[in-house]
From TrEMBL:
Keyword Transferase (UniProt): yes
Cofactor(s) it depends on: pyridoxal 5'-phosphate
UniProt record similarity statement: Belongs to the class-III pyridoxal-phosphate-dependent aminotransferase family.
A Pfam family: Aminotran_3
Domain of life: Bacteria
SUPFAM superfamilies according to UniProt: PLP-dependent transferases (SSF53383)
Keywords from the UniProt entry: Aminotransferase, Pyridoxal phosphate, Transferase
The protein's name in its UniProt record: Aminotransferase
Recorded GO MF terms: pyridoxal phosphate binding; transaminase activity
Chloroplast listed as a keyword: no
Record GO cellular component, one term: cytosol
Length: 472
């Protein structure tokens, strides 16, 4: 029997229009608007260099979002490309299951353990941030079942958080605007308020606001019963929820409550890891805590290959392994491409470049300049606040004056600014009333000045349009 296969179209398509038409016909994009997906054209990015990308017509843009928080070392690294090619020639793939490994997977696990805080020395590799968070939760449930505490199943996450796009991690995420026609788990997942100092009650000090958040967490623990709660899951800074920077002492206070009630603390460093806040991991140097587990992805390869990882405390692993292992203790979680040798080659070379080029030090030096320059945008009447930490920032539009939540006109303002930024050669990430920024770590002062200048022009043009429409 002969199977008929349709002939593939030539690659690449000759024109932007051909690429766009092919894409619209055959691709379902993440976060696609299905009302417009069949007809709306796409921006075709075809080249990248440093902190710039180019569309298929040759137009250059400052990539203000590093792809998706991830192209930390910038575009066009021949070193990573060559490391991947070399590994592909030597060993493209072998199974990681059971007791199988490859040299680069073992070495990357050692390097990550060396950089991680405390005793987080055990690594499970995944293929994404979603997979890393999913695997962290599975480990936690396995752990408590194995030590005879099967009642500890419940997970506390936060509103406006984002933890991934698998069935479990989408349910863990707290961004209500992302909840559409899918089904979400609600039996063991609970959400408390995320820290949003900009939206705190008028007149409430940061110290009092922090205590309010801690009190809410403790009240939720008492409501559910500490004996039923497995873990608390938190991003150091809530990224796509609006770059929500917690008040001083927040993570220390939450960690102390977790220790008090025997709840494991998972720090989701998928966005913040590998230099975005000036450190490979922010847990200890920025927030002063050592979590029980850390999840990471994105910057681990600077986006050159898909990869994620869970870093697990020796204290936890040792309690359920070796002589302490329960009967039939098979950890049946993992992926065909866990610790993929080509991906590990990319990660190891990426980490080498970050260290050699002192990119963490560069971020610590240039990050305050980035935030200072963005602060100047608060002079415009449609900007409510600029905020962030080093190369992770947000401009929030607020023309409604609503101190509690964004209104439709605020969202319109952000989308209008985004439109003009795009026209002027700057890619930002609009979300509701927010304009989110996370440029490659290699950006310099010249690039920052140009980025802020384009944003200022975009804000000015948007303000004129909004006034013409009677929204201001």
């Amino acid at each position: 029997m002969t199977t008929q296969v349709k002939a593939a179209a030539a690659y690449p398509a000759a024109t932007t229009e051909q690429i766009s038409q092919t894409d619209k016909r055959h691709t379902l994009h993440p976060w696609a608007d299905l009302a417009t997906a069949p007809t709306t054209g796409d921006l075709v990015i075809s080249k990248g260099e440093g902190y710039h990308v180019y569309d298929s017509d040759g137009k250059r843009y400052i990539d203000g979002i590093a792809g998706m928080w991830c192209v930390n070392i910038g575009y066009g690294s021949s070193e990573i490309a060559e490391a991947m090619a070399k590994q592909a020639r030597e060993l493209a793939y072998y199974t990681p299951f059971g007791a199988m490994t490859n040299p680069l997977s073992a070495e990357l696990a050692r390097v990550l353990a060396e950089m991680a805080p405390g005793d987080l020395n055990r690594v499970q590799f995944t293929t994404s941030g979603s997979g890393a968070v999913d695997s962290a939760i599975r480990f936690v449930h396995f752990y408590f079942n194995a030590i005879g505490k099967p009642e500890k199943k419940h997970i506390i996450s936060r509103l406006e958080s984002y933890h991934g796009s698998s069935y479990l991690t989408a349910s863990l995420s707290g961004k209500q605007v992302d909840r559409t026609y899918f089904h979400y788990m609600d039996d063991i997942i609970h959400h408390i308020s995320g820290p949003n100092p900009y939206r705190r009650e008028p007149g409430l000090s940061l110290e009092a606001y922090c205590q309010q958040l801690l009190d809410e967490f403790e009240a939720k623990i008492r409501e559910l019963g500490a004996e039923s709660i497995a873990c608390f899951l938190a991003e150091p800074i809530m990224g796509s929820g609006g770059v929500l920077v917690p008040p001083p002492g927040y993570h220390k206070g939450m960690k102390a409550l977790c220790e008090k009630y025997d709840i494991l603390y998972i720090l989701d460093e998928v966005v913040t890891g590998f230099g975005r806040l000036g450190h490979f991991f922010s847990a200890e140097p920025v927030w002063g805590i050592t979590p029980d587990l850390i999840t990471c992805a994105k910057g681990i390869t600077s986006g050159y290959q898909p990869m994620g990882a869970v870093l697990i405390s020796d204290r936890l692993f040792d309690r359920i392994s070796g002589d302490n292992a329960p009967e039939a203790a098979y950890f049946t979680n993992g992926y065909t491409y866990s610790g993929h040798p080509i991906t590990c080659a990319a990660a190891l070379k990426n980490i080498e470049i970050i260290k050699r080029d002192r990119l963490c030090e560069h971020v610590r030096e240039i990050g305050p300049y980035f935030l200072e320059r963005l602060k100047t945008l608060e002079q415009y009447e449609i900007v409510g606040e600029t905020r962030g930490n080093h190369l992770m920032a947000c401009v929030e539009c607020n023309i409604s004056g609503n101190p509690v939540a964004a209104e439709a006109k605020d969202i319109t303002a952000a989308r209008t600014v985004d439109k003009y930024c795009d026209e002027a050669g700057l890619i930002v990430r609009p979300y509701e009333a927010l304009l989110i920024l996370s440029p490659p770590l290699v950006i310099d002062k010249k690039g920052i000045d140009e980025l802020v200048s384009i944003m200022a022009q975009g804000i000015e043009r948007a303000t004129e349009e909004l006034k013409a429409e009677g929204l201001i």
